[in-house]
Design brief:
This protein is mainly beta and about 250 residues long. The protein has two helices and 15 strands. Strands 1, 3, 10, 11, 12, 13, 14 and 15 form an eight-stranded antiparallel beta sheet that branches. A six-stranded antiparallel β-barrel has the order 4-5-6-9-8-7. Bound molecules: 2-acetamido-2-deoxy-beta-D-glucopyranose (2 copies). One 2-acetamido-2-deoxy-beta-D-glucopyranose binds next to strand 8.
């Protein structure tokens, strides 16, 4: 399968390996206060993903970022430093979408309930979700941020990077990705340019006009755009229902 998950193994070396964005640039520190850096374990190996704060006690990310012992770092710019703005919170419960399918990566969305509320500060605050089906049209310029890899063979980033990406016509993705579905996915990233999200950016937000419209899901092995993003507006009722559910208090 040609699908490439945009996640990366974290090497626990002093320099660390964490991931970046291709052809992007460093973000003005704390200008994206909703960004979350996730670390989790699968079979005793560490992985990283991006995510974003949607409420004081909930982070939204991709379902393929599911693992155990997940921690969320909010308020970070340089993820390898202990910045005073950072808040590290463990995840109480990970709730992947019940219809997530790891084979074709449909419904690649997951809510993480935090063990405690984040303190909202100038470096930590939630991002707005779309009200309903606010249209995301081809030609719109949106952006993705992450601590993922800068290039296919490059090392990973310490400081948060961002890249602007243009929404593409659905044919650009349906011709490359067999299971692409425009009702639950967004196609973005101009195939004539190299700009792309890459390994380690998985789960991060695809932001249009200050609204989180998508979630970094997958792309091609060689890193060339377009990539596929989970279309958040298709999951609003699931998000609302899940965040208001009474039995979220119980044990895992
Ligand atoms: C929020 O602030 C309180 C009081 O300063 C502190 O005890 C708590 O650890 C902070 N929470 C986080 C997630 O950093
Ligand atoms: C998906 O494509 C169909 C057919 O082109 C179109 O009618 C529909 O509005 C599209 N859905 C979204 C969410 O863009």
């Amino acid at each position: 399968m040609l699908l490439r998950l945009l996640l990366v193994a974290l090497l626990l070396s002093p320099t660390g390996e964490a991931g970046k964005i291709i052809e992007g640039h460093e973000v003005k520190p704390h200008s994206r206060p909703y960004m979350a850096f996730l670390r989790y374990q699968i079979s005793q190996k560490s992985f990283i993903c991006g995510g974003f704060l949607v409420r004081e006690d909930f982070v939204l990310t991709a379902a393929h970022c599911l693992g155990s012992s997940t921690s969320v770092t909010l308020g970070a710019h340089n993820i390898h430093q202990q910045e005073r703005t950072q808040q590290v919170i463990l995840v109480r419960r990970a709730i992947p979408h019940p219809d997530y399918d790891s084979k074709n990566l449909v419904n690649d969305i997951m809510l993480l309930q935090l063990t405690r509320k984040a303190n909202l500060t100038s470096a930590v605050s939630p991002i707005r979700l779309p009200w309903r089906r606010e249209p995301v049209k081809p030609g719109m310029v949106c952006s993705v941020a992450g601590w993922g890899r800068l290039g296919v063979n490059d090392p990973v980033a310490e400081k948060l990077q961002e890249v602007e990406l243009e929404v593409q016509r659905d044919e650009q993705c349906s011709s490359r990705y067999k299971d692409y579905n425009n009702n639950t996915q967004i196609c973005a990233g101009d195939p004539r340019k190299r700009k792309s999200s890459f390994k380690g950016d998985s789960g991060g937000p695809f932001v249009c006009n200050g609204v989180a419209q998508g979630i970094v899901s997958f792309g091609q092995l060689n890193g060339t755009p377009p990539n596929v993003y989970t279309r958040i507006s298709s999951f609003l009722s699931w998000i609302q229902k899940t965040m208001s559910h009474d039995n979220l208090q119980g044990p895992d």
